[in-house]
Amino acid sequence: MADLQLQLRDVIDILVIAFIIYHLLLLIKGTRGWHMTLGITSLFIFRYLAGILDLRTIEWLLDNFFTYFIFALIVIFQSEIRRGLAQIGKGRFFLRLSAKKSQEQFDEIVLAATTLSSQRIGGLIVIEKEIGLKNYIESGIKLDAYMTYDLLVTIFNPKTPLHDGAVIVQGDRISAAACFLPLTLDPYLSKELGTRHRAAIGITEETDAVAIVVSEETGKTSAVFGGEIMRNLDGPRLLKVLQKTVAGQAEALPIQTEQRKETEPQQEAV
What we know:
By secondary structure, the protein is an alpha+beta fold. It has 11 helices and 7 strands.
């Protein structure tokens, strides 16, 4: 009986470790941390081969490197660690559904994005979900105003002092404008993506926020979530993206899936 309990304990132990490793890999997949993970794995393999071939100098160098390996991990993967801890803290590590947002909120954002697109006025709207954006709100001009189409369009008017930067939306209110966001460090992005797009990708890599970007050069609208960008969205498609990514409405899933298939070649080019 003791042996049977030990075996069951071992199985549970293995399953828990496998579960954690699986979610850690999902966390860094598609980020620069993924390539770093492959590089670190290569070092471990190289260390193993050096031991077999009795390459003592290489063994000594790698052994000394691995002594401080934990500190290197903290520095290299600091962005991924912050993101992972935030997801665990808000329950997203176990795929908890996000809170429902009102349809009226989405209509105002879509209408504003469509208007900015038709006039080729650049804009960046960040919608807060479960991870707070207080640090980024403090970098801009606080408004705490009820969100309307007119206010969004007015903020991004090139003749106003608040147009340069991001608008952060919390619930049905605009918390701040002219906010500074972290730029993504992904070296594989297309050169045609400007600062607004890189800031949108950067904030969604750090948090679970959803960002809407209107290009000043082309007038095209994009949605960014989870560090992934979906480009060339019209009003109805943008609405479906917001319903799926922000509100988590199941009925938006079929259109969202089709949207992803249509944009896959562009994402690969990016």
